[in-house]
Sequence to fold (92 residues):
Amino acid sequence: MTAHLALGTYRCRAIPEAVARAAAPGAQWVDIAPDYATGQAQTLLAPALACHPSLNVSTKTGYFTAATGTDAVHAGVLTEDQAAAGHSLAPN
Fold:
């Protein structure tokens, strides 16, 4: 078994800076999700990945912020109950 250094970004307040610090000693993975950092985590991560192209990304699917859930209800994509759950794998 080989250990690998990784960075988890759940509740991370400074994603670009954390990625740079983790990548410097050789982190190989960054964990992210669409609902982290109030829905901004992936956008914040993009420039850091451009600077560290060897990093791999692990992400989740189906999670969304409250604002995205509200938008999905207004668009008719999710029901109120689905939006309240904060997660959906509905094919819409």
About this structure: The chain has two domains: 1-60, 63-92. Helices lie at 15-23, 41-51, 66-74, 80-85. Residues 63-92 form one domain.
